[in-house]
Amino acid sequence: MKQIIALITILVFAGSLLMIVTNFQFGVPIKSDMDDYFLKFGQVQTGTNNQCTSVTFDFRGFDTLGESTVLFTAVMGVALMFRRFIRGEDDADE
Amino acid sequence: MRMSKIVRTATDILYPFIIIFGFYIILHGHLTPGGGFQGGAVVATGTALVLVAYSWKELPGLVSKNLLWFQESGGLLLFIGAGLAAMIIGFPFFYNWLAGSGSIFGTPVAFGPNPGDLNTGGFLPIMNIAVGVEVWGGLVMVLLYLLSALEREERA
Amino acid sequence: MIELVVHVLVLIGLIISAVLTITFKDLLAAALASGVFSLLISVEFYILQAPDVAISQAAVGAGLTTAIFIIAIRATQRFEGETE
To answer: Does B53 contact C at CB distance below 8 Å?
Structure first.
């Protein structure tokens, strides 16, 4: 019974993925107003030839700010977790 | 904790090129594919190669913990400060006020394919350098803490 | 034509390395197979014209993740199912 349910789930997921691949053409979005704006004005407004960077750092700067904060928090978490194991080894301020 | 002589010799030859390629990706982030995160990750990979091949205690200059913390927080502060500098002058937060202004990083760019100039992009190169320095410090910091905890574990 | 051949070879290599990753009993070899998987998927990203993603996948996936796995294996044990 469990195997039949697993098989049905796999078939449903594979079918939906194949439906997405076959129905939508690659590189042709349904709504492209924002993309057209970026491609038309991004190079002159931000002065960059690399449009990926102009989107991630200028038009979507808040995303990159959040990403940097996430990385900072993750490194701080690792440092706080492993600080217990190496206490007193090379931290002179404790 | 050191690896074999083959690994160490290959590391000695390879790691300057990897690190310089990472700096190239960071500095040319507004012209060629890549950017701050990708370049910082490449530099951190080159440093990780040295860290895994040698023992981390033999390399006090390359991986000092205080310097890495300074990189990590200084990169984030430079990133936020570049965004706040626009507010001080009177523009919205994260406004690219340097682009096309004629000063540093401010050469105007025409629409269409062109060979590219390093002195363009407004504050995007500054952002790239900030994020690159931050990612470099952060990823090396994670590896360094894992390795130092591992040595502590093996000695105990 | 040559593009299609490279594409098919990379995809076959992806499947082989993914299967090898979960079948190896030697965890060091499994970590290296995972690194090969990341390297091949970065080649695939490059073929699909996404060089940004390819660079970050090659650096983080093939370099740093493999290094972290090797450090973790060095701290625990090398073979799966081994008792202390």
So the answer is: no
pLDDT per residue as tens digits for the range A9-30 = 999 999 999 888 788 777 777 7
Closest CA relative to residue B130, chosen from C26, C4, A68, A20 = A68
Of residues C56, C71, C74, nearest to B41 (C-beta): C56
Domain count, chain B: 1
Domain residue spans of chain C: 2-75
Q: How close is the nearest chain B Cα to the Cα of A82, in Å? A: 6
Closest CA–CA distance from residue C3 to any residue of chain B (Å): 21
Which residues, in sequence order, are CB contacts of B107 under 8 Å at separation 6+?
A47, B100, B117, B119, B120
Give yes or no for a contact between A42 and B96, defined as CB atoms under 8 angstroms apart: no
SS (H, E, C) B71-103: HHHHHHHHHHHHHHHHHHHCCCCCCCCCCCCCC
